[in-house]
Write a structure and sequence with these properties.
Shape: globular
Largest sheet: 7 strands, mixed
Number of helices: 18
Structural class: alpha/beta
Oligomer: single chain
Helix content: 40-55%
Strand order of the largest sheet: 4-11-10-9-7-5-6
Distance between the termini: 16 Å
Length: about 450
């Protein structure tokens, strides 16, 4: 993403001065982990920050620096860090035990809440992550249809498992080391910028089992997708007997209490969930049509005479994740936490765009609800930040939204000024981000832009 040299930068120098302990820990970690990290998104130069504690919308690093946090647990923290309801749920459950290796009431309550909130959820199966949920959804589709091929979309992200790890934003090559050709041969990576070609592909191949997509667009809306495109997919897949899978790992319970599918009014056959689903602890789920989900059902397999899909998982619906998942989904169902987060996300977009306009910088903040992104305008388009409409831009333009040469320095400058946006760059807003937090973020953004201007990057 970044082509601006980080050497001889006063921004980098200021960051290194403020984060000496983080740098020392990262140097030590390089002797333990590849690149010194345990998640690719935490790779940053000159080094990542090490966080020691977090509360509400803020976190504090090893050097004592305080940040307004918009990383949001990779999108899992609708109520911010260490929310009392989450702490209470964990403490009450951990005293009862962490793993009975048996069915328990919390898993039942958790599954019932998923069914209540997600319109297409007739049956639910828990997993330990969103990657696992998507993998199970793909397997279910192939077992149900008896077909082999999967259609995915350019830049859409569905985890690191073999069927989806190439041709994505994070691995744009046609192949990834370690993935065998047979898998790649049965995956079609389609371009959503060419809807007619996508429709022709679906109508011209009788071996397509499933279509999987992020229903709001790649990177949960960083590259927006129109409702008309999703509607076309729903109509064609239904007519062709193809299983439509919505990856709602990020959008589930965030775009609306019922996810993107409720907001769009378009129901998939299967849905993958994670993140908010388990309140910030590990957990995922696949849910959807009963007739497809029964491929996991012992009694249905015996009655209908098909071979059941085996599915184990030591930590499926583990009691701690079920406790926090039940606590958060009950609040989503009974309260307005999703609405509040979305409202605060809109305020952040407005605050950032007012700063861009005042600074004369042709960048823009945009997004859907509490998922916020930054259009860094690498091609120097003539835009007004206060009137920018990401959905009206060609997909080819939005594919380069984060490609400005100074994008990495932009994030570092924000960290120096006490704000942690994620590496897209973007922000995940929670229901506990206050108006004061957003005002402070606007001030930090202005200071970061001034630093970039001083070095000649803007």
């Amino acid at each position: 993403m970044d082509s601006t040299p980080l050497t001889n930068s006063q921004i980098v120098a200021a960051f290194e001065e403020k984060t000496r302990r983080s740098k020392a820990r990262h140097l030590e970690a390089r002797d333990v982990f590849p690149s010194g990290i345990v998640h690719d998104s935490r790779h940053m130069k000159p080094h990542p920050i090490y966080v020691e504690r977090a509360l509400g919308p803020r976190k504090w690093d090893a050097d004592g620096n305080e940040y307004i946090d918009y990383y949001g647990g990779h999108g899992s923290l609708l109520l911010g860090h260490a929310h009392p309801s989450m702490v209470r749920a964990v403490n009450e459950q951990i005293a009862r035990g962490t793993h009975p290796a048996a069915c328990h009431e919390l898993e039942l309550m958790w599954g019932q809440l998923v069914k209540l909130l997600i319109p297409s959820a007739e049956r639910v199966r828990f997993t330990s992550s969103g990657t696992e949920a998507n993998l199970m959804a793909i397997r279910l589709a192939r077992a149900f249809t008896g077909r082999n091929k999967l259609v995915r979309f350019k830049n859409h992200f569905h985890g690191w498992q073999d069927h989806v790890a190439f041709g994505s934003k994070y691995a744009s090559a046609d192949s990834v080391p370690g993935i065998i050709g047979g898998i790649i041969d049965n995956v079609i990576v389609a371009d959503p910028a060419e809807p007619d070609a996508v429709e022709a592909t679906l109508e011209g191949d009788d071996d397509i089992a499933a279509v999987i997509l992020e229903p709001t667009g790649a990177s949960s809306g960083q590259i927006p997708l129109s409702r008309e495109f999703v509607k076309m997919l729903r109509e064609v897949t239904k007519a062709r007997g193809i299983v439509l899978i919505f990856d709602e790992v990020v959008t589930g319970f965030r775009v609306s209490p019922g996810g993107a599918q409720a907001a769009l009014g378009l129901l998939p056959d299967l849905t993958a969930l994670a993140k908010i689903l388990s309140g910030g602890l590990p957990g995922g789920a696949v849910c959807g049509r009963r007739d497809i989900m029964q491929r996991l059902d012992f009694e249905a397999a015996e009655f209908h005479g098909f071979e059941k899909i085996p599915h184990q998982g030591t930590f499926n619906a583990n009691p701690l994740s079920a406790a926090t998942g039940t606590a958060i989904l009950a609040q989503v169902a009974d309260g307005d936490v999703t609405e509040v987060a979305n409202r605060q996300g809109g305020k952040l977009v407005d605050a950032c765009n007012r700063v861009f306009a005042a600074e004369g910088v042709p960048w823009a903040a945009y997004g859907q609800g509490s998922s916020v992104y930054f259009f860094t305008n690498p091609d120097g388009l003539d835009i007004d930040p206060l009137a920018f409409d990401a959905a009206a831009q060609p997909i080819s333009v939005m594919e380069t939204a984060s490609n400005h040469p100074a994008a990495a320095l932009f994030r570092i400058a924000l960290l120096v000024n006490g704000v942690d946006f994620n590496s897209k760059p973007g922000a995940i807003v929670s229901a506990v981000h206050s108006d004061d937090d957003i005002a402070a973020t606007g001030a930090a953004l202005g200071a970061a832009i001034d630093m970039l201007k001083a070095e000649g990057h803007l």
